[in-house]
Structures are given as C-alpha cells and as structure tokens.
Amino acid sequence: MTDVHRTETRPEVEDDYIRVENLEVSYDGTTLALADMDLVAGKGEFVAVLGPSGCGKSTLLHAMSGVVRPQAGTIRIGGTAVRGSMGDEAPLIGYVFQDHRLLPWRTVEQNISIVLRANGVAVTEVDGRIDRYLSMLQIDRFRRSWPMRLSGGQRQRVSIARALALQPAVVLMDEPFSTLDEVTARLMRQQLAELWQESGQTIVFVTHSIREALFLADRVYVLTKGPASVLDVVDVSVARPRRYEDPMLTELEGRIVDRVMRVWGYEGPETTDEAER
Amino acid sequence: MTERPEGSNHAPGGRVRERWINLALSAAGLLSLMLLWWFASRTTTFVPSISDVIAAVPAFLDDEDIWPDVVATVRRVFGALAIAMVAGLAAAYVMARGGLWGQVVDRYVSLMLGIPSTIAALLALFIFKRSEIGVYFVVAIITFPFVALILLQGLRTADRHLDEMSDVYRLPATTHLRHISVPHLVPYTFAALRNEYAHAWKVVVLAELFAVNTGMGARFARAFDRFLLVDAMLWLLVFMIILLGTEYLLLLPVERRVLRWRESGAATP
Amino acid sequence: MTEAAPTLVEGVGLRTRERNRRIQAIVLAWILALGVWQLATIVSDGWVPSLARIATAFVEDATDPEIWAEIWITFRRILITSVAATAIGITLGVASGLSRRADAFFRPIVVIGMSIPDPVYIIVAILVLGTDESSALIALVIALVPFVVTIVVGGVRARDRGLDEMSAVYRLGRRRYLLDVLGRQVAPSLLAATRTSFAFAWKLIVLVEALTQPEGIGAQIYYAFRLLRPDHMIALALLFIIVLRIVEAIVFIPLERRLFRWMD
C-alpha cells in the first residue's frame, strides 16, 4: 500500500521530532478512544491523520496537546515528553479547532495577543507577530474586528493565525475546514499548503476527508474505527505544489477507499447491487 | 395554518413600511392606555382628568420641595441594588462551587425568593424602626435572591469549548478569569441588573410607604391620604418616568454598547 | 504515570456521598439559621421573638380551625388570580410572540404595566369597585398579566423556526401547530410563568389583605403586627408558606415531570 518513491522534494527532516508510541487514551476513564497508537513526524513535516467520524482522532490531538492524560504510552515532542499541563520547558502547541474557539468578546488582535502574552512572548514582539501572521493569512484588514462580524472562513483564518503566531513546536489541526463550504474550504486548503511551505511548521492535521489528507500531507496515517489504531501509513510523494484534482491523488484515494471500506464499516459494491435489484 | 412571516415583503421599502406600522401600533397601544385613563376619570370620582394633571405639572416641577424626596428614593434604589448585586455574585459563586456550603446557601436563597415584600417591610420596621437602613434592607433582601439565581445560571453555563481552548494554549488563571470567565458573566449581570432594577423601584415604594417619611413612595401615600389626587397622580407619573427613563436611556444603551461584539456581520441573512 | 480509571464501585459511592452532603447541608442551614435567630432575640432584648415563642404561637395557630378557614380564603384568592392571570397572559403572550405587530401594540402596555408599583393597583382597584373582593382580585390580575406575558413571549421567541417551516410545508393547521409544535416548545416557559404568577399572587394578596380585607392570612398577619405580636406574625407566615410548598410539591413537580418526559 505504501508508495515508497522518495523524491527529492521531500524536505530534510529531523526524523522523529514528534514521536507517539503505544498510546492508549480513553474517554472518561471507561471507553477506549485510542488503542496502541503510533505516530512519527519529522520536523517541518505535514502529517495527516485520517479516520471515520468518532474514531477518536480528535482525542489523539487532545493527548498530544497535553490536555488529556493517556492511560498508557508516551508522547514526545522535540525530545520533551508531554505530560499533562506543565511548566516552561513544555513545547509550545498551536491548536486550530474545528469551531474556531475565538473569544467573541475580544477583537481579532486581542485574541492573538492574549495567547501570545500568556505563553511568554515579550510585549515588544507581540505586535510584530500579529502584523506578520495576519498579513500572511490575508486578514490584516480585520485586525480590530469582532469575530462575530467575520465569515466562517475568516474566523478560521484568525484561528490559524493565532496558532502560527505562537511559533510553536507543532501545530495541531482538528478538522479545521469541515464546517466551511466547499469553495472556501478549497481556498483554505490551498492557502494552508502555501503557508506550510513558507513557514516550515510541523503540522499534524486530523480529517475525515481522504482527498484533503492526500492533498495536504507528506504522510497520511489511516486509522481504524474506534478504539483507533494505525491501519496503514501512506507516503504521499506527489510533487508540490499539488493540484486538488491531480490524477495521482485520485489513484491514491481509490486505493485507500478500497482498503478502508470494510474496515470502516461501509457496504461493498455487491450490497448496493442487491439493493438495486 | 401558521402565519406567513410578516414583513415578508423584502424590498427595502417594505421593511421600512413594516417599521412604521409597528411604530403606529405601539402608539396605538399607548393611546389605548390614555383612553383608559380618560374613561376612568369620567366614570369615577377619584381619578383626576388628564387635563387637570397636565395643568398642575408646571407648579409641581417648580416646587423645590419635591427634589429631596426624588433624590432620596433614587439613592436608596441604587444603593440597595449595588448591595444586592455584590451579595448576589458572592452567593452565586458559592452555590456554583457546590459542596456543603454551596447547598446551604442554595437553601437560603430559595427561601428568600418567596418572601413577600410586605412581610420584609414589616420585619424591617420591627428591626430598624423607622430608619433609612430599613428601606435599604428591604430592597436588598428582596432583590438579592433573584440576582443570585441569574448569576448562578451564568456561572453554571460556562462555555466548555473556550475552557478547552484556554487549557490547550495554557492560559494562566488570571488571564482565564479576565478574558473568559468575567466576559462570559457580563450578559447575565446585565440581565440581573435589568430585571432587578425595575423590581427595586417597585419595592422601594412599598418600603417607603411602610417605613419612612421621605421619598417618592411616602409622598405618594401622603398625597393619597389627604385626598390630593392630582398630586398623587403626579407622583405616580414622576416615578414611572424616572424608572422607564433610566431604564431605556441609561441601562439599555450601556448594555447594547458593552455587548456589541454579539452582532453578527452583514453577511448573515 | 497512568491514572487509574474510577471504578463502578467508586461511582456508586459518589452518589451516596452527594445525598449525604445534601442532608448535611439542610441540617447545617437550619442550625445556622435558628442559631442566628436566637442570638437576635437575645441581642434585641426580646424585640425579636424567641424561637420558643414562635414555636408556641405556631402550634396555637396550626391547631386553630379559624386560622385554617383564613388560610383557605387566602388560598382561594391566590388560585383565582393566578389562574386568570396565567390564562390571559398566555393568550397575549403567544399572540405577541408569534406576531410582530401584536407585540408592537402590546409592548408599551406591558412595559408600563410592569413599572407601576403594586400598591397603586390595589388602591385603584379598591376605589373603583368599593371594598369588596372582586376589586382587589381584578387589580391583581391586571398587575400580574404583564409578567406572565413577558415570560411567555420570551419562550415563544426562542422556538425553533425550522419547526414552523415544517408545519407550514406539511400543512398541519393552526390547532395542531399550537398544541403539538409550539405548545411543546413553550411548555417550560408556561410552567415558569404559572409558577411565577402563583408566587407573585401570594406576595400581592398578602399586601391586599394587609391593606383592606378583614379576612385572610394577610389580614391576620397585619393584625398580629398591630397588636405587637411578632411571634404570631412569623408563625402565620410560616404556616402559610408550608401550605404553599406542599401544594407546589403536589401540583407542580409532577406536572413538570410529565411535561419533560420526552426529553429523556
């Protein structure tokens, strides 16, 4: 299944900047969300985590951000172990939620500055970073706006700017475009890909859209249904910049679909025929 | 069949037309009240006619004697309300935290919700005799539990999503308090303020009636006792004008300004 | 390193702990309150009636059949006023909630109604119809309606408009819509409104009886006040509150449970 044509476009990486091993996380202590999860990402890599709805892939991000404690296993980011909320040596995490999670009663620039200041960014630095990342995401004109006045896509951009402005060790993205309409989502994917090339940020991107994962990532971790573990790892060695409709992506998508159809619980073609008869 | 949505005439002219119609209807509502007044003055002996009342207005306003009473009542309302808001917040906090003391306070608050103002006024009369403190006591005691109830709701419905975001970005407790917890409570604080402001005004009249000699409530009662019905009516009108005036010209604009972040962009239909 | 998941046994323990805590709280609340009261008695040199005196007065009153007759009188009045106010309030409230125009018309009336202090209504009603019962009751109903309307309007406005559209598309008809679609959504507000009008009616009735009527609990309380018998004042109030609480428990709680069954 894995396509191992390593092309020269693959960036030079620190091979295991992020290392997740044997991770086991449960919801509320009883139901297991993740069972024996492994994941490796090099510095500056774009890694996608693909799974059906409710399989626990969001829980993976919760554990990686230190908000949820795993029942077993380890998570290391940049060499440091992630272990619940901790002190200053903890790696900085940028997080983009599915539902932006901006403070509606603070302006865009305040939303970003609050997070930056809370994570120890010097006052003198803050403005500069806000300038830089707002223009990077082309929303500088909304600097003083209230989040509620922005469209869904614009709010998500603020959320991304907030994450990037932190200049974190890793940016965790939890289905950030799934609530947007298709056109906006396409634009955002495009922009994210460009941004990533420019910034060299390490990104772990969770999604349930196969095409989206293939378009954006260097490597795709395909998960099983809950409790989730790794079903397969797909190397996406399609040259960048990629086109969303690229036939090579289509081929990869087809292979993944075949592979996961039964595992994720969808009926195969025979059943559809039967139903039609 | 359910009503067709009104103002479904979406052309801009249609929407403006809607607003005029509604304005006219509101005026009609007011007019019907005036009609009621006029009717009452014609058919009863004690309701003064509208013209009599209007005629007495200039003399009334000129009379310097009325202002100290107005000021006294206003002072009491704002003072007692402030006490009630602070106490209400404290109580709501304790209740939200739960545990033994939370439940204890909960019982007290529920009990206090049911105290009739009359009884509170009589009680105050007993305890404080005929003093100013009695009025503050009554108003504060009556409004405090309602404030606590509303603020408790606010504290209970904390937005878990924002709390999660705050955890992920490791916002320190002070930041969390200042930028998330407190702003979340603001709409609830205004709801409590709005409701209990009017409530306080009505209770203060009652308290003054029972307990003291100064203030608008006392003047109203005195005018009525002496059968100076025009005066009584004027005091009533002054009372209502101040109450509604401060509510619509003070509270509402402030609330709207503080909550301006709520308005969604023009894009949303 | 890894946290142990709380076991099922621990979960059960949690529930009993909660219940124990609640009982503790009740006991503590009572002890504290009574303690403070006794203190007040001592400090005020007998102005504040002691618990013993109150208890005696309570027993006296609770066993006095005349007092129960008064209780019934007051209760009957509360019932009439709150039912009438609720009925009128719901009608106006639903109309205002559904129709912007009805709301525009009634809004000023409601707002002004809510800003008039209670004594005014009562005095006016008394003078209009003479000192008999119907006058006071009418005044109270008028005083209560604005509150009920406000609560109901809030509930109607907060309805799911999507269901409105569905009702229109499936041509459910007005009656079906009001009962099954709107009614169900508005039920919690209606319940709140009924409870509120019941509670407010109690407060107002006491005021009315204190000011005018020769009968009813409020009147009795006022007499006790006049005769400088604070122990009886408190005892009577307590007695009546207990009666009301019992009624609430019998009527409202089961109603609430039935109404919200679908939520489970």
Defining key terms:
heterotrimer, A: 277 residues, alpha/beta, 8 helices, globular, disordered N terminus, disordered C terminus, B: 269 residues, mainly alpha, 10 helices
Structure description:
- The complex is a heterotrimer of chains A (277), B (269) and C (264).
- In chain A, helix 2 runs parallel beside helix 4 and helix 6 (210-216) packs across helix 7 (247-263).
- Chain A is an alpha/beta fold and 277 residues long.
- Chain A has helices at residues 57-64, 108-118, 123-136, 152-165, 182-199, 210-216, 247-263, 269-276, and strands at 18-27, 31-41, 46-50, 72-77, 80-81, 93-96, 170-174, 203-207, 219-223, 230-235.
- With 269 residues, chain B is mostly helical.
- In chain B, helix 5 (117-128) packs across helix 6 (132-156) and helix 5 packs across helix 8 (173-211).
- The longest helix of chain B has 39 residues, at 173-211.
- Chain B is globular and about 70 Å long.
- With 264 residues, chain C is mainly α.
- Chain C has ten helices and no strands.
- In chain C, helix 3 (65-98) packs antiparallel against helix 4 (100-115) and helix 5 (118-129) crosses helix 6.
- At the B-C interface, helix 1, helix 4, helix 5, helix 8 and helix 9 of B face helix 1, helix 4, helix 5, helix 7 and helix 8 of C.
In brief:
The complex is a heterotrimer of chains A (277), B (269) and C (264). Chain A has 277 residues and is an alpha/beta fold. Chain A is 35% helix and 21% strand.
The secondary-structure class of chain B comes to mainly alpha
**How many H/I helical runs of chain B?**
10
Oligomeric form: heterotrimer
What do the pLDDT scores of chain B average to? 83
Indicate the mean pLDDT of chain A. 84
Shape of chain B: globular
Low-confidence stretches of chain B: 1-10
> Which strand order spans the largest sheet of chain A, edge to edge or round the barrel?
6-7-8-3-9-10
Biggest interface between chains:
B-C, 53 and 58 residues
**Rg from Cα of chain B:** 24 Å
Number of strands of chain B: 0
Coarse shape of chain A: globular
Give the % helix of chain B: over 70%
> What amount of the residues of chain B lies in strands?
under 5%
